[in-house]
Amino acid sequence: MTTFVPEPRLLWSERGRDWPHRYLPARPARTEGLPSSADVVVVGAGPAGLAVASALWHLDVRDVVLVDRTGGVCRRFLDRVDTLAQRVLRSPYEHHPGVEGYRDCELLDFARLQWSWLSATERTQIRMAQAGHRSVVPVDVFEAYCRHVASLHGVRERTWRGEVLELRRENGGVAVRTRAGGIRARTVVLCQGEERRLVPEQWCGGGPLPPAFGYWDAPVPGGARSVVVVGAGLTAAHVIGRSLAEGRRVDWVMREQAERFQCSDVNASFFRAEGRARFDGGVPWPDRLSLMGRQRRASVMFEFRPLLEEAERAGRLRVHRGRAVESLAGPGGAAEVALAGGARVRGDYAVLALGTVPSIGERLLSGEIVGTRDGWPDLDERTLAYRRAPEVFAVGAAACMVLGPAARNIDGHRVATARVAATIAARLSAGTGTAAITRGEVEALV
């Protein structure tokens, strides 16, 4: 059997090119004039928040306020991408934060409109997408498209920079407390995404990270000539690729016995209705939990395989496979990783790429409302509202145990958004606040 391995050149798409001026302007972050009330407050203006606000616009729900820690649409998402020097997205062209079912321009058509700005490799990817084959999207194209969607649906004008501190149910609505003031909302949608997974306490003896260690979403210091990367996923691969391109020697530590290369981070079936049905309410919780555990395994895009194999042959990359980490230390200002079996790996700096964990609302809502079960929130499976707070909804990774692992993906955001936006629009239209909505009403609007 022959395995097709795409060329690494797909990974080095141009970033920061001179797009037509209508896609470039990014509004300065708004910090003043935060409204005191709104029909809907969206917490987070990343791809999920953009999808929610755009869908509500189409349903004629316009009194929407987005509160984001950066104040920019998809800004934190793109900042993380740029920290990794990531040039293409793993998600294909059909996965985008635009709104389905309306006469909006989708990502693939948008990319075709920029044909003259694209490289020959990027044009080939578009042709592959048109033919139904796997393709990758340049970050530049994705950013321009997000700005287009935000402008088209008035999202930028309704986004404020701020940190949400607490959500509290009050008189049939939600009091949203931020550092800049409070907002009285009839409905709140949490689009918080995921946060980096922290090191196990035993690695540092319960103390802080040694100075020569950092996480994947922070840049590697310029003076580091050798780097230790801990983790087996795509984020680790991007850190390694950037470090090799900058002339560093890299040690790669992974608990797994071998790298796991695959096109998508989850099986493509989970992006279709039959895949999501494997997480329907009728499926026993232990079965869903088991499925989720198998689908959240670390993997690397096929495009990295030739790059990593060549670097290992040349001695610029040393891979420590099947080696669990026991402890971290910083002797002499360097980074030292102690492995099971007694081996120690040293470098000028170490990057911890241990994956991410979903933000499920625990920091903003009381534990009683979140109803955490095995790390997941207790959501109404028809509406994605918190069962104990039907005025609050979750879109993104927090909905994984209802929609399956695709909920973490940009395309999964659209599936969740359709359900949430339809529910909110029906409630506001009926003037019933948090009154129950039937499955038929949701399906009719979707």
Characterization of the model:
There is one protein chain. The chain has 446 residues and is α/β, with parallel strands linked by helices. It folds into 2 domains: 8-196 and 357-445, 3-Layer(bba) Sandwich (FAD/NAD(P)-binding domain), CATH 3.50.50; 201-262 and 301-354, FAD/NAD(P)-binding domain (3-Layer(bba) Sandwich), CATH 3.50.50.60. The chain has 13 helices and 20 strands. Strand 7 and strand 8 form a beta hairpin. Helix 1 (47-58) runs parallel beside helix 12 (410-430), helix 6 crosses helix 9 and helix 12 packs across helix 13. Residues 434-446 have low confidence and may be disordered. Residues 41-194 form the FAD-dependent urate hydroxylase HpyO/Asp monooxygenase CreE-like FAD/NAD(P)-binding domain. This is FAD-dependent urate hydroxylase HpyO/Asp monooxygenase CreE-like FAD/NAD(P)-binding domain-containing protein. InterPro entries: FAD/NAD-bd_sf, HpyO/CreE_NAD-binding.
Short description, anyone?
This protein is α/β, with parallel strands linked by helices and 446 residues long.
